[in-house]
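Technical annex, item 7. During the second reporting period the consortium partners agreed on a shared format for inverse folding records so that results from different sites could be compared directly. Each record opens with the tokenized structure and is followed by the designed sequence. A conforming record, contributed by the partner at site C, is shown below for reference.
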């Protein structure tokens, strides 16, 4: 087995751990991996999507070392990668898996216990490595922040349309309430009562899982509210409900980042201690307001009629997350390879890369095939790249060769929704197959985008590169690659 993912779901812990592992599993499968899950009893009842997967049910009450041995017995051939997403497991369990799992990725966001891992993924925006000082081995590679947020591809796909609707200033009058798949303490009922107390006139969408213990009670209460309420169960397309809502009232788990990806402002209700940090990050970014269940009415009355504030919060939220964290993380775990066998991946460009990119663009050999042969002056380039990094319609990545910057790959969104591809490989890194691998990884990053490449007729290397990647000629300069549909388990 290539990858085994260890995560649980339940009435009390919800389904977030398994849901984000499913997202990572899908990205790894697109990279060619075979995946399986190991979960405790009850997980399948909370996360119905797990039934479509290969998974084994763990016995209850095993000590960490016994659990590690149970996994080893279940997959005697071992695995290339073990993914552990579980607040109840730590270095004791991970260390016991070392003879069986060749590499280990831990997903955590509490930073409250030690780990023995090759990678640690904490997708909290703004997270710093110092939070894990003394908790991980020195060789552990830290994957931190919003670049690694594990969201289903559907959210990245819906992002542009959702943001465009909000920026156009249209209001749907819809309010989304989502307190997790199980909502074990029936916070949803208190939220509905708070909406009624606020006096806000809205159409309300409530989302729960089929295994939620208070589902019928919520349905009964919804029918008594002085506003229309629709209760959605095991929603297959959560992104659609989020895209049409004006505001969400939700928990501080994974759904927080789904809302951010779609630019949906929110009132974050913290229903577990581990959500306090997320709520704080969102409020500091002015993407959400935090409230206890009893304080929702006042917060809602404060926000609902303030269109300008909702628009500002939505844009602040969208800046936190672009929805591409799963394929970026998969690139690290299963990277591409250059001709010399060294790993190749893409990472988002930042303001610290401005001068490096400018240096590359001064090279006469690189300028020879550019639309504008004249090298840009420093001030001109600085303005241009700063604007590109801030443009929500542009995706600007560096090509890393053995973790060293070796070029750039950029996607600029055109008015018709097509993305124009621009690629540059530094002269010192050419003839290693980096361009071909970067183009392949770019398609992996954005499988459902329509991609356009503009190439000079005399640039025979680029003509061959894009033709081999499946691009079809439109005219003397333009080549197109049609979208590839991603099959997503719902």
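Designed sequence (site C submission):
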């Amino acid at each position: 087995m290539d990858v085994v993912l260890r995560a649980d779901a339940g009435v009390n812990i919800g389904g977030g751990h398994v849901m984000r592992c499913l997202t990572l599993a899908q990205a790894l499968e697109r990279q060619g991996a075979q995946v399986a899950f190991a979960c405790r009893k009850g997980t399948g009842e909370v996360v119905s999507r797990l039934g479509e997967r290969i998974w084994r049910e763990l016995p209850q009450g095993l000590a960490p070392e016994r659990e590690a041995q149970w996994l080893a017995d279940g997959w005697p051939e071992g695995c290339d990668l073990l993914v552990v997403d579980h607040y109840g497991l730590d270095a004791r369990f991970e260390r016991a898996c070392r003879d069986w799992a060749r590499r280990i990725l831990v997903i955590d966001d509490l930073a409250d216990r030690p780990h023995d891992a090759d990678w640690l993924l904490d997708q909290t925006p703004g997270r710093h490595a110092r939070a894990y000082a003394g908790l991980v081995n020195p060789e552990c590679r830290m994957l931190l922040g919003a670049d690694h947020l594990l969201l289903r591809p559907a959210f990245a796909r819906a992002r542009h349309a959702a943001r465009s609707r909000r920026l156009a200033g249209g209001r749907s009058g819809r309010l989304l309430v989502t307190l997790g798949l199980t909502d074990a303490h029936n916070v949803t009922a208190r939220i509905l009562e708070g909406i009624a107390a606020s006096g806000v006139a809205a159409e309300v969408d409530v989302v729960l899982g089929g295994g939620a213990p208070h589902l019928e009670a919520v349905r009964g209460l919804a029918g008594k509210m002085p506003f229309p309420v629709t209760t959605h169960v095991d929603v297959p397309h959560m992104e659609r409900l989020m895209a049409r809502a004006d505001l969400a009232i939700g928990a501080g788990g994974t759904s927080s980042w789904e809302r951010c990806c779609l630019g949906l402002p929110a009132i974050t209700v913290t229903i577990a201690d581990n959500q306090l940090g997320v709520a704080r990050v969102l409020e500091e970014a002015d993407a959400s307001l935090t409230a206890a269940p009893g304080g929702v009415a006042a917060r809602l009355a404060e926000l609902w009629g303030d269109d300008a504030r909702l628009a500002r919060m939505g844009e602040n939220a969208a800046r936190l997350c672009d929805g591409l964290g799963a394929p970026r993380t998969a690139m690290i775990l299963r990277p591409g390879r250059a001709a010399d066998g060294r790993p190749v991946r893409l990472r988002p460009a930042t303001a610290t890369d401005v001068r490096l990119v400018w240096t590359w663009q001064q090279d006469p050999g690189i300028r020879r095939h550019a639309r504008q042969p004249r090298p840009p002056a420093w001030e001109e380039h600085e303005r241009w790249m700063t604007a590109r990094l801030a443009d929500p319609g542009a995706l600007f990545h560096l090509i890393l060769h053995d973790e060293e910057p070796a070029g750039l790959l950029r996607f600029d969104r055109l008015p018709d929704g097509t993305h124009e591809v621009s690629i540059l490989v530094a002269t010192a890194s050419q003839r290693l197959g980096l361009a071909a691998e970067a183009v392949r990884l770019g398609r992996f990053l954005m499988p459902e985008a329509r991609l356009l490449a503009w190439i000079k007729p005399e640039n025979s290397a680029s003509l061959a590169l894009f033709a081999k990647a499946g691009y079809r000629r439109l005219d003397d300069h333009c080549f197109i690659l049609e979208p590839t549909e991603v099959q997503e388990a719902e």
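Residues 16-30 form the longest helix (15 residues). Residues 124 and 201 are 34 Å apart (CA to CA). All partners now use this format for quarterly exchanges.
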